Amino acid sequence: MQPAAITPADSASASDQAPGTRLPTVEQLLDEGAAGQGSTGADTHSRLPMMAVPGNIMLQSAVGRLVEQKERIDQLVRDGLLAGLLPAEWSAAPGNELRAFVASVVPFASDAARGDTQPARVPLRFLLGHSQRWCMADVAEPHSLAAYLHSDARADSSGSDPAEVMLLASLGLAWAHSGRSRVGFLRAMDRQTLAARVTVLPYPEPERLALYQANIDGVVQSWCVLDKRRLRALAAPSLSLPLLAAYGVQAPKAWPGNWPAAQEVATALAQARGGKGVAEVDLVALAERIGRSRADDAWANASLMQLNTWVPRWRVFLASFIGLPATLLLLAGLALPGRVEAAVVAAALGFAGGAIAALAAPWVHARRRHLS
Known about the structure:
Number of strands: 12
Helix content: 40-55%
Strand order of the largest sheet: 1-5-3-4-2
Oligomer: single chain
Structural class: alpha/beta
Mean pLDDT: 80
Order of helices and strands: HHHHHEEHEEHEEEEHEHEHEHHE
Distance between the termini: 126 Å
Largest sheet: 5 strands, mixed
Radius of gyration: 39 Å
Low-confidence stretches: 1-21, 23-42
Strand content: 15-25%
């Protein structure tokens, strides 16, 4: 007996009965969008190790929250909805906006002292990017670009379009040093990691950091102090404080009364903002400067010769207080009788001596800052 022919309907019913052997349709094979949805970026095929982060769940949550907030800020900036509303520090260095953002939000974070650099996979939920210039909607072939940027080859510094990431290891927070714009794009393409060369950076222990709040002209300012000496202002406390609290830094306290006055600190910060880099105040140096200023404002006995706020007219002085007495002495010796001559000589000498005493004797009160 010949086997019965299998009709398309029989094939479909057999396929329904054995779902484990069902083949994808032609439409599914050609639908690139459907294949990309829900993809994890084929991280299981990567040969790169995963970037290590601290096991503190609260800290991971705070870092993830900061990354989400930065992504939303980028979206609003890209849409032109935050023009003129962002802290000036974030845009002070064009081309280094992400670095400026990290420096102002994470106080005392710096890439000046660098540790080891290794290729690794960086979880995007712990990675800060800068997606204000372009996004997925601006790419003609997003899936092809996502596959290219997601490749392990991007962690090779000698290859094309390499990515470099800075990692604050104790915080578990990373930011893209090169390849900043691809972070938001890969996140939008539902990729979970980024291949990059990861450089480990140190960050102060939470015990070395202290948070303070001060009321300056009716506005509450938040400051972070390192080692009871170096002070930086928090440009966006709503972003910084949750992260620092999860890291283990104590809640903000009132400004101590035994430190330089809060108004003096605010003035020093305003002056420091005029220079390059992050505005920072050395509290020890500020206290010494205030002490010298107060000492200079103290009153002291001084002579006219010690004052640096006036300039004598020496020709007039020599003619009036030296030349005139000398002339009188000469006339008295030539024309006057003995008793009258003695009186004139005494008067001339007293006049000259008084003039010299007026210059040299400490008979005036002046502030020390006005003394030479």
